[in-house]
Design goal:
Layout: E1 7-10, H1 14-22, H2 43-57, E2 68-70, H3 74-86, E3 91-95, H4 104-116, E4 121-127, H5 128-131, H6 140-150, E5 155-161, H7 167-172, E6 188-191, E7 194-198, H8 204-208, E8 214-217, H9 220-233
Parallel strand pairs: 1-5, 3-4, 4-5
Antiparallel strand pairs: 2-8, 3-6, 6-7, 7-8
Helix pairs in contact: 1-9
């Protein structure tokens, strides 16, 4: 029997994200300087004013159009994800609600990448409630435990647990229903200096017939920015 310890961390999800985004050294400034907009009531000026305010208060990274690839469907998303994992050299970080309990092919792909590249490091973030819903049967947690057991120094697995579910609530509210108290729902699939931003989880329905959005950004700055968010929660 393979055993491994998965770390479940209970923290307010909004706290590290707010702290992260507020740090000035993590802002990327563009060469574009927003111009003041008129304060008339037309839709155009309202949009311009909103854009101007966002430009002053949130991180911004300029990239070229040829650094963005739009994937058309779930099969292309899955094949692209596996292909990039196999080619990974330095890092893989995956943030998702859960990994399907039967996704042995995906885990095997990560395993192959780790075998091929001794310097490769893998960090996986899922939700604790959703990831252990099927316990003591096979679950996301048990699937990841095998990978962690084989590569304990190079694989990091974190399962976010909402701080809103503790004490008597946690003891008496049944599974599935307890997920209404809060979940980790970030979807970030970063490999080296590229990242796939999507709404898709890592499970068979999202790999076969459940349509979502899939954008591949080939930008080290974008990938590093979201890596900081991922690791802030971890």
């Amino acid at each position: 029997m393979i055993t491994a310890r998965l770390r479940i961390r209970t923290i307010p999800l909004h706290y590290p994200l707010r702290k992260l985004i507020a740090r000035p050294q993590w802002r990327f400034n563009s060469t574009y300087t927003p111009q003041p907009v008129s304060q008339s009531s037309t839709p155009t000026s309202f949009l311009g004013g909103t854009t101007f305010q966002l430009d002053q208060s949130v991180p911004r990274i300029d990239i070229r159009a040829d650094q963005i690839e739009v994937l058309e469907g779930p099969k292309e998303f899955y094949e692209t994800l596996k292909r990039r994992i196999r080619a990974a050299k330095k890092r893989i970080y995956l943030s998702t609600l859960y990994i399907g309990k039967s996704e042995n092919e995906l885990i095997s792909t990560i395993h192959e990448a780790l075998d091929a590249e001794p310097e490769l490091r893998v960090s996986i973030l899922t939700d604790a409630l959703r990831g252990t819903r099927e316990d003591p049967e096979a679950s996301c947690a048990s699937l990841l435990a095998s990978l962690l057991a084989e590569f304990p120094e190079r694989v990091e697995v974190r399962m976010y647990h909402t701080p809103n579910l503790v004490g008597l609530r946690k003891r008496f509210i049944p599974k599935r229903i307890n997920e209404g108290w809060g979940l980790q729902h970030i979807k970030l699939y970063g490999i080296d200096d590229e990242i796939i931003l999507s709404g898709a989880n890592l499970s068979s329905d999202y790999f076969t017939n459940r349509q979502d959005r899939y954008h591949v950004f080939s930008s080290k700055r974008v990938t590093n920015y979201f890596a900081r968010i991922h690791h802030a929660v971890c």
